[in-house]
Amino acid sequence: MERTREGVISLYGVNYPLAQRPLVRRAITPFPQKVVTGDYRRSDHVVESEWVSSDFTGGLGVLFADPTRHLDRYWFGSLDGRYRYLTLPPLVESRGTLPVVQRFFSFADRIYAIGAETLYRWEEGTQSWNGLGSVSGAFSDVAIYDGKIVILTTTGTSVYDADLGTWTHVSGTGGFALGVWDDKLFRIDMQNRMLWTIAPEDGASWQNAGRFPAPPGYTRQLIPYFDAAGEIVLHAVARDGLYAYDFAAQRFYPTGLQYPETDQVGRAAVWRGELYVPVGLSIYKYNTNAVTVVGPDRDDGLPAHLSGRVQQVVAGHGLWFAVIAVAQQSGSTSRIDTGLPIETALFPGVSVTGAVLMSPGIAFHLLTQRTGISEMGDVAAFSGDGTYRLWGSDSLGVWSVDLPVGLHNPLQNPTQRYAPEGALITSWWDMGWSELDKLALGIDVDAVVPDGCEVSVYVGWDYREEWEYVGSVTATGKQRFRIGGTEGHHFRAARLLIAMRRGVDPSVAPLLRSCVLTYLRVPRLLWGWEVTLQLTDPYCRETVGVPAHELIRRLEEAAASRVAGTFRYHDEGGVIEKRVFITEVVASEVQGPRREGRYSVSLIELES
């Protein structure tokens, strides 16, 4: 080690004499410029960086956000984020108690339900269900054919004439699935044979029409869709793929939609000319030319309590729906504790639950979550009795949600009714700098809050489950809340929980224009040094025993090398050593051909 003493420093292994000016140590970390994550049009801070949460149209399913592509995404929640502003979801209304509905359907502008092998009809005037009779055997399928309701069970077929209120039961004609095509009623029986008839009341009228080439029960749905030639034919949704039926050849042929065999295949539906087939938590979108995966299992998927399967896909007008069913898990007692009053509604501590997700195209939003149930029943979107609703059933009863036919923005719908409360959790955001410390300063909330309504904001820090209450807004306008008192709050990543409640009027709800987290980027404090060297003779020879021109040459070589080196100087406590990098060398008062004079050297103290 080179020896140093007062008036002498060692730089890059060479001793240099100091000028009379003392060593200068200063903080050199530059102040990071402001950045905006999200809608920069809502940025109004001059110095503070901003994370603007104002667009949630991209849907749920992103737990860890990428600022380059997830600006309109969030993790999970029941608030309605399909539109320009965030607001409460539509009201879910109870529609009586029935056994778990196996199938809803509409006929002649009336809503019907089949539960426990009994046919019911909804009476809008009395807001009740009217039992119309029962069928024998376990329910399999239902179809409307020739103006009558045809119910298929495992043991036979029952035909109900709604005009006359009469039943015709035909035993020995059971099966798995019904389908209507070319004015014929088709049936896959218990031996997987394909049969057809034009007179379902006559058990002897069924004609053989081939066989589905798989064991019994391998397919439980027949659905009309386009074949490769563009003609509408029956398709069988099976455990390993989609099969098109050729009536002339009386055979099933595999289509381009095939997947590994599984018993987790749900009921498919056609929406806007494309076929949606649920398999597990995936949903395949098929249009004879391409297969696309569009299910809620993309990105980061769904919360653990909804890790079940897509029971069915339901087609609507402006939306399509995915029905999630979660099976009973023995001994499951896991619970996500957020420490908030709304935690039970958002993350239930039960092992049985279900949910309905809605999608205007690709993105998913939560419509309703069914907690504390033992079974999720059928869900369907139908018009009936002058209404258009999404009907649903579970072990707690029947419920419905009013749906718009052509107007999809609830903020412009004069008949919209809202749920009493809701909440939404954003993704985790590191603002694009995962390893850089940030200092949270405040949250600005811009909301429209009618009388009796409330918008509350909570914040979570650094991937922890705990929430910190920020504040509530009870009046329209922008309100600022300070975080961490005067000092602020250090963090690496943050997320928000936005909760809303309405008043007693279900037609009035709050809406959130934006929620802005303001912060500073605070990198670690770096230190620098400014050293003034007296590189003249005879001073150099007398002080360090080396001529000035040699020290100048060594200094210039060290600066040009662009490598790190050591810096040692003498202090009251002894010799101090730092790892540094030369950033600047300035010569002043230079004289003679050997450039002797004063040299000011700027150094950065390195972290590594």
Describe, in plain words, how this protein is organized in 3D.
The longest helix has 14 residues. The protein has a seven-stranded antiparallel β-sheet with strand order 2-1-45-46-47-44-3. Strands 4, 5, 7, 37, 40, 41 and 43 form a seven-stranded mixed β-sheet that branches. Helix content is 4%, strand content 49%. About 3% of the residues have low confidence. The protein is built from three helices and 47 strands. Strand 22 and strand 23 form a beta hairpin. The two termini are 20 Å apart.
Care to give the gist of this entry?
By secondary structure, the protein is mostly beta strands. The relative contact order is 0.15.
Topology (elements, then pairings):
Layout: E1 8-11, E2 14-17, E3 24-27, E4 36-37, E5 49-53, E6 76-77, E7 86-87, E8 93-94, E9 101-107, E10 110-115, E11 118-123, E12 128-134, E13 139-145, E14 148-153, E15 156-161, E16 166-171, E17 177-181, E18 184-188, E19 193-197, E20 207-211, E21 219-226, E22 232-238, E23 241-246, E24 251-258, E25 269-271, E26 274-279, E27 282-286, E28 291-293, E29 309-315, E30 320-326, H1 343-346, E31 353-359, E32 365-371, E33 376-384, E34 387-394, E35 397-402, E36 421-425, E37 438-448, E38 454-461, E39 468-473, E40 477-482, E41 489-491, E42 494-501, E43 511-521, E44 527-535, H2 539-544, H3 548-561, E45 565-571, E46 574-591, E47 596-605
Parallel strand pairs: 4-5
Antiparallel strand pairs: 1-2, 1-45, 3-44, 5-43, 6-36, 7-43, 8-35, 9-10, 10-11, 11-12, 13-14, 14-15, 15-16, 17-18, 18-19, 19-20, 21-22, 22-23, 23-24, 25-26, 26-27, 27-28, 29-30, 30-31, 31-32, 33-34, 34-35, 36-42, 37-40, 37-41, 37-43, 38-39, 38-42, 44-47, 45-46, 46-47
